[in-house]
Write a structure and sequence with these properties.
heterodimer; A: 479 residues; alpha/beta; Amidase signature (AS) enzymes; 11-stranded mixed beta sheet; 13% strand; B: 481 residues; alpha+beta; Arc Repressor Mutant, subunit A; 3 domains; 10-stranded mixed beta sheet; 41% helix; 20% strand
Chain lengths: 479, 481
């Protein structure tokens, strides 16, 4: 075979198929070989639907032969096991959803499908997307393909590991507090969290409805632009999706940063962060300056409250969102319960893992009568302040440059005993979700152990064109 | 000791909409269990609600009908509690920004009118229906997600009878507004009632109990009657009322404690993040206001004023909006609205109920009824023939003039012809004549009947009466002379 699926990007796959140098079926078969070869070590996938994927690929090849078009015709996409794909499992890496088969496509999935994408398999995650390491999966721990002693990040760790490990051309993740950007950074791939409302959430099993967004995890920025362009846009099934036209994201990838003003938020370069990470990110900033950008110092004064604000709002919404998993209509149900209430208690006790329970209890507490004002209402007020911080800085600059995380990937098991320490690792990512803005994670180097570091580009709401242009220019100059 | 009763009602009304509150499923009643369901109303992972604008519109119309203030900024909230009939284990409802605030419903009390204040009207989704079988239970989710409007009254109702009158008045308004079918058999209207009693002279309310899920108005009346007596007796015998939720047992006719409020749910309301706020502009509200149907009470008063019909007639006619509409259409075409009213209140309503028909689809048109009244008023036909014509119109429709012609029912008012009928009747009935002459005045009635018979019902009865009287007078003089 004259091609290599390990490093193949979406746009490469498309041009190979366009030139008839390979078929979708060949790509899928190559990918399935890779999965068989490495996934035993990496554990990125929870399920690979080989036969179904081959059939979809054959159909795509036939369609292409018949002259049909499609922005992603025959391109395999791996999907985080929290997004509904008709006829496939959607466990959210939770035992409570074992046995559930989705009766419908998420809107983002349907849009990819209608452009010809092929759905290869379901990737692992922290249960219900709650976590930053993919160690909270109810089924297995995914390892970082760069070094399998390390976590891939989370919660979309399966998707990032599949892409970085050559087991997927591209993948979908979801980002509630950094769950696309962080694993992309830890694994050395590109991760995009679009603005809130840019991609329909319909069919994304909700963790925190006001923060969740679907985002692509890809091998380069161009692929992120392709996937975003396919999935973005208003959807009548999601009232929080926004009716703003979808630009041609590819057209904006000019390769330079002329006339761009980029801000460096001082709160994102703090004492206590890994000095090596800081050095690598600052080098990336210097490269952006060299590409023509003007770099300015800015401040986001309410950043220090972001993590606590995030954990109040996210857990509050989660406590209601996860109430539906009760064993009545689908999924796992405990046997031998005496009455419905007993059944709920036992089903949920056995079905949910410890981190999910921790967040449900926390969320239930902050919404309780007598505590609502002190926690949930205050958090909403701080959220407004955080949003205003961003509105103010985006008057001074086009986008922000920052690290994705204060550290590189942790060793497996390193942080599991200390959830609070783990929550603090979200400090640079949760702000984008709270503010509803967009953020991109681009690989910007590795530390001396070879663990990747991510450069985070934050843009204003619906400013995806800008951050993709910046990410693309930086990426082009670094490779 | 005299006790005062305080009652407040929460009335849940299913709105008449094509689809459910937050998804496209049909809201039709009576389908096979779990056939009107989808990922949204079953609470599947990832499914999201989309607001039904028609339900919002109908709720606002209801608010305007009872004089509520419409919140230009309203929103939905999640109300959390676990129950098998609740697909998401939270109900999308409205907490602090309901669509409508304030308003009132006028009720008839002892010949007067009492105004009962309404606190708020909010919109929410209905839950499923638990079904219990021999060894298992099931849930039918067809009902889950049907738009449900909750109308909360102030605790201003002071007797079970007033509560009943309030429900009747409310139902009439909802029917007039066209927002709900108010079909009690199908569970369109369900009530929770709060009730307390206190001694006369005591200012603060007594401890209240709540009776949940009453689905007939009679049930509300009877449950409250029982509960008031129970509370008074409890206090009289030195006991205390527990703040608790009770259930009405129709079979035994008593209320039974369900759970104490001390263990009340903490519903943990918070704004529904899957929906955007409901913004209704001034212009939209004014638009709805200007197209609002007339309140039944106003229509009743107007009928008396405009058509000069008695208060009683107006009340009967306006009880049902379509009957009122029919009356008004016919009355507008007639110079005798009272006659129109008589026809509707007697023949029409009797035949409609006998034949289980709806006045909206009846064959006899309002203009045909007006025509029939004119034929009678102009003495073209007599009242017997009019009944015959009405029956034909009711069954087949058509033009009354045509029917009168076809059936040859034109009244005979020619005194020559009538005299001939009378002479023949007198000749044919010597016994009746003799009876009359011997002082039995009623015998004249019999002769009159014979005259009508001879004319095959077409003779003008007034004319027959007058001429017959003359003729009999002559006979009397003959006998005495």
């Amino acid at each position: 075979m004259s091609f290599n699926v390990r490093n193949m990007t979406v746009h490469e796959a498309l041009s190979l198929m366009e030139r008839r140098e390979c078929t979708s079926e060949q790509i899928i078969r190559g990918l399935l070989d890779e999965i068989r070869a490495v996934d035993g070590r990496i554990d990125a996938y929870l399920m690979v639907n080989e036969d179904d994927a081959i059939n979809q690929a054959k159909a795509a090849d036939r369609a292409r032969a018949e002259g049909k078009k499609g922005k992603l015709l025959g391109v395999p996409i791996a999907v985080k096991d929290i997004l509904n794909v008709r006829g496939q499992q959607c466990t959210c890496a939770s035992r409570i959803l074992s046995g559930y088969v989705s009766p419908y496509d998420a809107t983002a999935v349907a849009r990819l499908r209608s452009e010809g994408a092929v759905f290869v398999g379901r990737t692992n995650l922290d249960e219900f997307a709650m976590g930053s390491t993919t160690e909270n999966s109810g089924f297995k721990v995914t390892k970082n393909p760069r070094n399998t002693d390390y976590v891939p990040g989370g919660s979309s760790g399966g998707s990032a590991a599949a892409v970085a490990g050559g087991e997927a051309i591209a993948a979908l993740g979801t980002d509630t507090g950094g769950s696309v950007r962080l694993p992309a950074a830890f694994c050395g791939c590109v991760g995009l969290k679009p603005s809130y409302g840019r991609i329909s959430r319909y069919g994304l099993t909700a963790y925190a409805s006001s923060l969740d967004q679907i985002g692509p995890i890809t091998k380069d920025v161009t692929d992120a632009a392709v996937l975003l362009g396919t999935m973005a846009g208003w959807d009548e099934m999601d009232s929080t999706s926004v009716k703003i036209p979808v630009p041609d994201y590819m057209a904006g990838l000019s390769g330079d940063l002329k006339n761009m003003k980029l801000g460096l938020p001082r709160e994102y370069f703090v004492k206590g962060m890994d000095p090596e990470v800081e050095k690598i990110v600052r080098a990336a900033v210097a490269k952006c300056r060299a590409l023509g950008a003007e770099i300015v110092d800015v401040s986001l004064p309410h950043t220090e409250y972001a993590v606590s604000t995030y954990y109040i709002i996210a857990t509050a919404e989660a406590s209601a969102n996860l109430a539906r998993f009760d064993g009545v209509r689908y999924g796992f149900r405990i046997k031998g319960a005496s009455d419905p209430i007993d059944m709920y208690g036992k089903t949920r006790a056995a079905g949910f893992g410890p981190e999910v329970k921790r967040r449900i209890i926390l969320g239930t507490y902050v919404l309780s009568s007598g505590y609502y004002d002190a926690y949930y209402l205050s958090a909403q007020k701080v959220r407004t302040l955080i949003r205003r911080d961003f509105e103010n800085v985006f008057k001074q600059c086009d986008a922000l440059l920052a690290p994705v995380s204060p550290t590189v990937a942790y060793r497996i098991g390193e942080k599991t005993g200390d959830p609070l320490q783990m929550y603090l690792g979200d400090i640079f990512t949760v702000t984008a979700n709270l503010a509803g803005i967009c953020g991109l994670s681009v690989p910007c180097g590795v530390n001396k152990e070879g663990l990747p570091v991510g450069l985070q580009v934050l843009g204003p709401a619906f400013g995806e064109e800008k951050i993709l242009r910046i990410g693309h220019a930086y990426e082009s100059a670094s490779t | 000791m005299k006790y005062l009763t305080t009652i407040g009602l929460e009335v849940h009304v299913q709105l008449r909409t094509q689809s459910k509150m937050f998804c496209g499923c049909s809201s039709e009643f009576g389908a096979e269990p779990n056939t009107h369901v989808c990922p949204v109303c079953l609470g599947y992972p990832g499914a999201m609600p989309v607001m039904n604008r028609e339900a919002v519109r109908k709720t606002i119309i209801t608010g305007l009908m009872i004089g509520s203030k419409i919140n230009e900024f309203s929103k939905f909230d999640r109300k959390s509690y676990f129950y098998p009939d609740m697909p998401k284990n939270y109900q999308i409802s409205q907490y602090d920004k309901p669509l409508c605030v304030g308003g009132s419903v006028d009720i008839d009390v002892d010949g007067g009118i009492k105004r009962v204040a309404v606190t708020r009207i909010h919109l929410e989704e209905d839950v499923g229906k638990n079904m219990h079988f021999q060894n298992t239970s099931g849930v039918d989710f067809n009902r889950a997600g049907i738009p449900l409007m909750e109308i909360v009254s102030e605790p201003e109702i002071s007797s079970p009878e007033e509560a009943f009158a309030y429900l009747l008045a409310l139902k009439q308004i909802l029917l007039y507004a066209g927002v709900s079918d108010c079909n009690l058999e199908e569970g369109n209207v369900r009530c929770d009632v709060n009730c307390s009693v206190r001694q006369e002279g005591q200012n603060e309310f007594g401890t209240k109990t709540e009776i949940k899920n009453l689905n007939t108005f009679k049930g509300v009346l009877n449950a409250l009657k029982y509960e008031v007596v129970r509370q008074v007796e409890t206090l009289e015998s030195g006991g205390n009322i527990c703040q608790e939720t009770r259930r009405w047992d129709v079979d035994t006719g008593v209320t039974i404690a369900m759970r104490s409020k001390e263990y009340a749910h903490d519903y943990r309301y918070f704004p529904e993040p899957d929906l955007v706020p409901v913004v209704t502009t001034r212009e939209q509200i004014e638009e709805l206001q200007s197209n609002l149907p007339e309140l039944p009470r106003y229509r009743r008063e107007r009928f008396v004023k405009e058509y000069g019909i008695p208060e009683y007639d107006a009340a009967v006619l306006t009880a049902d909006m379509s009957v009122a509409g029919y009356f008004e259409q016919a009355a507008k075409l007639s110079s005798n609205p009272k006659a129109i009213s008589n026809w509707i209140m007697t023949e029409m309503l009797r035949l409609l109920s006998e034949k289980e028909l709806d006045i909206r689809t009846v064959m006899i048109t309002p203009s045909a009824l007006a025509g029939l009244v004119k034929l009678t008023d102009d003495k073209v036909i007599n009242s017997n023939s009019a009944k015959e014509v009405f029956a034909v119109l009711f069954d087949k429709g058509g033009d009354p003039n045509q029917i009168v012609k076809e059936k040859g029912l034109i009244q005979v008012s020619d005194s020559g012809a009538i005299e001939k009928f009378i002479e023949q009747a007198i000749a044919d009935n010597p016994k009746s004549v003799a009876d009359y002459l011997s002082g039995k005045e009623v015998a004249a009635k019999h002769i009159l009947g014979q005259v009508m018979k001879l004319s095959r019902g077409k003779a003008n009865p007034q004319l027959v009466g007058a001429i017959l009287e003359e003729k009999l007078k002559v006979e009397k003089q003959k006998k005495n002379g």
